[in-house]
Amino acid sequence: MNKTVLQIIRFVVLVLFQVLVINHIRLGGYVHPHIYLIFIMLLPFNTPKWQLLVLGFILGLSIDLFTGTPGLHAGATTLMAFCRPSIIKLVSGNLKFENIQEPSLGQIDGMWMFRYVLCMVFVHHFALFFLESFSFHLIGQVLLRILLSVPVSIFLIMMILYIFKREKKKE
Amino acid sequence: MNNLGSFIIKHHFVILFILLEVISILLLARSQNFHRNRLVNTTNDAVGKVYEWSSEVGNYFRLNTANKQLAEENALLRKQLSVVYDTTSCTYDILNGDTLYEYIPAQVVNNSTTQANNYIIINKGAADGITRDMSVMSTEGIVGVVIDVSRHYASIMSLLHSKSVVGVRIKESQELASLKWETNNYRYGMVEDIPTHIVLKQGDTILTSSHSYIFPEDLMVGTVEEFYPTAVDALNRAKIRFATDFATLRHVYVINDLHKPELDSLKARFQ
Fold this sequence. Notes:
The complex is a heterodimer of chains A (171) and B (271). By secondary structure, chain A is an all-alpha fold. Chain A has one domain. Helix content of chain A is 69%, strand content 0%. Chain A is built from six helices and no strands. In chain A, helix 3 (49-67) packs antiparallel against helix 4 and helix 5 (110-132) runs antiparallel to helix 6 (139-170). The longest helix of chain A is centred in the C-terminal third of the chain and has 32 residues, at 139-170. Chain A is globular and about 45 Å long. Chain B folds into two domains: 2-32; 42-271, Rod shape-determining protein MreC, domain 2 (Thrombin, subunit H, Beta Barrel). Helix content of chain B is 34%, strand content 30%. Chain B has seven helices and twelve strands. In chain B, strand 3 (135-137) and strand 4 (142-149) form a beta hairpin. The radius of gyration of chain B is 23 Å and the shape is globular. The chains are: A mainly alpha (171), B alpha+beta (271). The A-B interface holds A 16, 19-20, 23-24, 26, 29-32, 49-50, 53-54, 56-57, 60, 64-72, 74-75, 78-79, 82, 131-136, 138, 141 and B 12-13, 16-17, 20-21, 23-32, 39-44, 47, 50-51, 54, 110, 112-117, 119, 155, 162-163, 183-186, 247.
C-alpha cells in the first residue's frame, strides 16, 4: 500500500514538473526535454507487463491533457512501456537481479542505469517527434529535434535519479 | 472459442499494446483534422485551474513589465481620446453608438512557444462571453484565434502554429499577402504570396487585412526583417518579426466582432 502511494505521488509530481517547469524552458526551437518518463523507468521489475502499458498510456494522456495534443505523448509513452522488458533484457546481458526490486540508481550501478535511460529515452523521443510530424512534415527538422533533445533529456533524468538516490540513503 | 481465448491470454501484452497505440493514433488524427473537430476536449477547467495557480506565482515576477506595458497603452489611448475630445462635442455618443468591436481583457495562464503547434490558454471562457473564432491581440500586436472554450477558460491557436494562416496587408502598398509560421522560431513569421512588383525593405510594417474575416482590419502584425525575392516563382516571400513577444505574453484582449453574426449570415446566403 505504501509503495502504491509513493508511485501515485511520483506520478503527480513528475507530470506537474514536466508541464509547469520543463515545458517552459526554452533552449532554442529544437530542444524539448521530457523527464516524466522516469515514472515508467522506475516501476518495479516484477510489474505485470499489461500494467506497464496501461500506466504508460495514462501517463502520456495526462501530459497530453496539459499540452493540448491528445494521443501524442500517450502513443510515444505506450511504445516505450512496450519496449521496456526488451530494453531491460538488452542492457542487462547476463546480469541477474535477484535482490533488486526496481531499477533505481541506489541499487544498480550507474553504467547500467545510463544505458537503460539512453535506450528508453531514445525510443520515446523517436516515436514522439515522428508522431508530432503528422502535421509537421520536415524530416530533417524532426531528426534534429530528436538528436538535440535526447542528450538533454538523458542529462536531466540522470540528474533527477541521482538526487533521488541521495535522498534514499539518508532514510 | 477456447482457442481464441487462449490466444488472447497468450498474446495479451501485444494485443493490449496495439489497442492502446490505435487509440492514441486515432485521438491524434482526430485532433490534427483541425476543421472537422478542432481540439477534442482539451480545454477543461481542471487543467486551466492548475495552469492558473502556476501562473499566479510567475506573475509576481513580471508585474514590473506588465505595469509598464499597460501604462504605455493607457498613454496611447489617452492620446487618441484627446483627438476625439477636440474634434467633436459629444464624445460619448461616439463610444456608445456604432461600436464594432468589444474588447475582453484576459490573462494568459499557459503558453508555449517551442512546439510545432503552440496553444495559449487564457483565464476567460464561455461565462465571459467568449466563443470560438474570436480573434486575440496583445497590446503589441495580434496573437491568435480562439479555437475552444470551456466555462472559465479558452484555448487559443497561437500564430505559432503550423496550420495558422492569417490574411495580412502591407501597410505602404496596401497589397494583400498571407502570414504563416515556419515552426522553429517564436520571433519570426513568414509572409507569403507577395506580388512580384512589390519590393519590401527591412522595417516595413505588416498589418491585418479585412479579408481575413477573423481579425479586425489594421491591427499590428509585425515588421519586415528580410525580403526574399524569387526568380522562379511568381510570388515573393518575406521574413517578419512579430510585434507580439510570445515568450513574455501575459495580458491579451479577446476581440468580439459585434457585426460578425451579420457578416456570417450574409456569407452563408451565397454559399
